[in-house]
């Protein structure tokens, strides 16, 4: 108690008045800070420059949106696959009608016939038909053409008549319409990557620059008569480490395949792999070469 009565806590009248004025001054300054706007009264904006700047931003945004749109290149609608059709915006039913028509060994030779077969809407047809690229003999049937080593109408060769793709030379490959020195070298380079060569012609899908039309022509002239021997992996028993040894399957995809297999309590068919997230549907025919269900 004697400590509280010490002179440290005793103020004279003048000292008390000084403390009161100091507190009052602090409160006054805080009020001035909060209630008085010290910023400049008005910001001058050049509306013309602002409008021009906004127009430039909008223009750049439109360019960016346009660049992000998937680009469509000319293609022959006869060779639309499940993946290609889906990327174009076709429904499963429309794709199935086209594939069923092609299985009859029939060919679509006009935009009108494409719509008759697939039953696509007029608006969709108008959007994609500018990219259709039919063979010249289909668009100009009255024009005479020199006979080439490939023709849609010639009698298909039997398996025995075809050349073994695993033994074909660059010169033999170049006889196929659409294959020059560059593509023939790429085919042989890919073949040499595998000890024993190709398993099936479908592996040509991995050759950069080969269109489905050219692959079809190769298939008419060549066959894999001496496929390399492989031990197929059982899909419903395979580990992640086994799956990643297959072309086009990385660790993440292998993990999702195993996860989906557990959810399904096993795959009933290899085509069910298409339902796995991020599965490369356009490469399923190659992947199926390495797999079996049992």
TrEMBL record:
InterPro entries reported in the protein's UniProt record: Endo/Exo/Phosphatase_dom_1, RuvA_2-like
Cross-referenced Pfam families: HHH_3
GO molecular function: DNA binding
UniProt keyword annotations, A-Z: DNA-binding, Membrane, Transmembrane, Transmembrane helix
Gene3D superfamilies in the record: AF1531-like domain (1.10.150.280), Photosystem II 12 kDa extrinsic protein (1.10.150.320)
Ranges that cross the membrane: 18-36
PANTHER family named among the record's database cross-references: ENDONUCLEASE/EXONUCLEASE/PHOSPHATASE FAMILY DOMAIN-CONTAINING PROTEIN 1 (PTHR21180), ENDONUCLEASE_EXONUCLEASE_PHOSPHATASE FAMILY DOMAIN-CONTAINING PROTEIN 1 (PTHR21180:SF32)
Full protein name: ComEA family DNA-binding protein
Source organism of the structure: Mariniflexile jejuense
Upper lineage: Bacteria, Pseudomonadati, Bacteroidota, Flavobacteriia, Flavobacteriales
């Amino acid at each position: 108690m004697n400590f509280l009565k010490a002179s440290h806590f005793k103020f004279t009248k003048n000292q008390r008045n000084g403390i009161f004025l100091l507190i009052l001054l602090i409160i006054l300054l805080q009020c001035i800070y909060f209630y008085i706007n010290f910023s400049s009264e008005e910001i001058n904006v050049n509306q013309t420059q602002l409008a021009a700047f906004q127009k430039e931003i909008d223009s750049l945004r439109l360019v960016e949106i346009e660049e992000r749109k998937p680009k469509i290149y000319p293609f022959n609608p006869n060779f639309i696959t499940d993946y290609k059709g889906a990327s174009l915006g076709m429904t499963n039913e429309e794709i199935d009608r086209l594939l069923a028509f092609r299985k009859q060994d029939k060919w679509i030779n006009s935009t009108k016939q494409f719509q008759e077969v697939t039953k696509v809407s007029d608006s969709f047809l108008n959007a994609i038909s500018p990219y259709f690229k039919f063979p010249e003999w289909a668009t100009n049937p009255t024009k005479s053409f020199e006979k080439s080593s490939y023709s849609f109408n010639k009698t298909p060769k039997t398996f025995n008549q075809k050349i073994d793709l695993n033994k074909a030379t660059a010169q033999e490959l170049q006889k196929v319409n659409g294959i020059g020195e560059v593509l023939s070298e790429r085919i042989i380079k890919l073949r040499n990557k595998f000890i024993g060569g190709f398993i099936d012609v479908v592996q040509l899908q991995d050759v950069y620059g080969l269109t489905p039309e050219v692959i079809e022509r190769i298939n008419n002239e060549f066959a894999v008569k001496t496929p390399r021997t492989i031990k197929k992996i059982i899909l419903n028993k395979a580990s992640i480490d086994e799956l990643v040894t297959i072309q086009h399957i990385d660790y993440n995809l292998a993990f999702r395949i195993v996860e989906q297999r557990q959810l399904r309590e096993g795959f009933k068919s290899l085509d069910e792999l298409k339902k796995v997230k991020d599965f490369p549907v356009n490469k399923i025919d190659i992947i199926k070469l390495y797999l079996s269900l049992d």
